[in-house]
């Protein structure tokens, strides 16, 4: 069984700026590889550091220039984390653009923990990061409502616009995430690899439609004056098809119990992901 989460936020910035980035390192660790993961914990989320504090990092700006939206700053922060061996980036302050600066200004703590997955609340889809039962951190509210399902994945896709200019193409970012705290599994099903694969394919199916959304947005003629109406329409059309497909998947596989149907769906989903590989990133 699946449950949908919609992610939609929009930030309109006519200009942005290149920030200064300063670091204070107190316990440098061995550098991570480029492929290692750095978990970002937002300012509003609780974080209990069960590892080593490596230091702090901060972006500042005193004027108006270019290229300093939140996503760009976080990507730069992640690179510095990897250089210093940190796998956690804990945001402690985030100032939005204002009359003093067109930049996002961010301050964060860098940490190295034994297992970053223990701190995850949301997981962004990756072909190298498969779900485990430990990612299902929620509890069923009323088990009698879910007699046909032994687990539930709360996943979905949406989009953001971080930079809109009067002239030129609108920059869009599509994200596809799995919500750990509202996804659950019954304790007696945690040894079922077949059910886990069924839930993973719910997430993979969401990724197909996230890629379709990227494709549609890439070919759309969005600008400052029409992007809200047009992008919402594109999203609504794709999301309608996505909901129908998720429901069909559960129906035809009987929530993963029908092994033959499950294998057929797995093959089809893998094929569709390959066909849309061009749109795997923003």
Any overview of this molecule?
This protein has 282 residues and is of the alpha/beta class. The chain has two domains: 14-119, no CATH class; 121-279, no CATH class. It is 30% helix and 24% strand. The chain contains four helices and eleven strands; from the N terminus they run E-E-E-E-E-H-E-E-E-E-E-E-H-H-H. Strands 1, 2, 8, 9, 10 and 11 form a six-stranded mixed β-sheet that branches. A five-stranded mixed β-sheet has the order 3-5-7-6-4, with helices on one face. Helix 2 (193-219) runs antiparallel to helix 3 (227-253) and helix 2 runs parallel beside helix 4 (259-275). It is globular, with a radius of gyration of 21 Å. Mean pLDDT is 87; it is low at 7-17.
